[in-house]
Amino acid sequence: MKLIIDTDPGQDDAIAILLALGSPEIELLGITTVAGNVPLALTSRNARMICELAGRPDIPVFAGADHPLVHTLVTAEHVHGKTGLDGPDLPEPTMPLQDQHAVDFIIETLRAEPEHSITLAPIGPLTNIALALRKAPDIAPRIKEIVLMGGAYFEVGNITPAAEFNIYVDPEAAHIVFTSGVPLVVLPLDVTHKALVTPERNAAFRALGTKVGQAVAQMTEFYERYDKDKYGSAGAPLHDPCTIAWMLDPALFSGRHINVEIECVSPLTRGMTVADWWGVTDRAPNTLFIRDIDADGFFALLTDRLARL
Ligand code: BDR
Ligand code: CA
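^ thats the input. predicted complex w/ calcium ion below
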């Protein structure tokens, strides 16, 4: 399957990219970067570092939006560290950043490839995707689906009591995406907080005995601190890799087709994903909203794919 990953690496973004690169079913056409966990210059650096770690400097990386549509950028160094990719000691990238803007790459690629052949996996704030949809509305019906990490239902917020980080950073962009009519698959915190890197699972990464296995273990050891201290989590939640795993093996997940709207107005609940799980409104479903995961199956898949790099 042809894929574009839109990302703000972020250790869990990095592992999502590695999972895609280790999976022969996926043809990664490019990586587009966005400001989120850290500012754009760092997310663009980190994405290239990960391609080089995987031995894939041929993957084109395009920088996109350096700020959200309306609000000031909110970052998450408190989770991911100063660089966004704290933990492993990786060399600075030498592969180039592409000259083309990420939004134009997304538009051109969708126009050039056959209809419904390209999946988008946004795993950061949705700014680039919204800008592309707004600049070129003709691309919407050409997208096969958008499989994104964002939002929450029962698990509610990790950046405010009401909102998940990716949606909170750019709710107006999320609103554009959720009302675009493009088929959406959403992997919210309800799922990703079940995909926890326990010590045994991390030992399995390290036991791969490769540079990739070692770096992944060091990344999760760094950013698990936040979730352990804050929520008493059993390990680092692998938010973003859930999107790629869903594409590879949707049978590992379960959810419902429901309506999801984004709160953009209230200062108290800005960025909340208002998910009509029980179908109490007559709003039409716009999302396959995932709530559950076979975590052991997910980690078996991930470890197997990382072993190929
Ligand atoms: C999301 O926010 C970021 O910190 C992670 O990379 C993930 O995409 C989780 O809320
Ligand atoms: Ca991310």
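The chain has one domain: 2-306.
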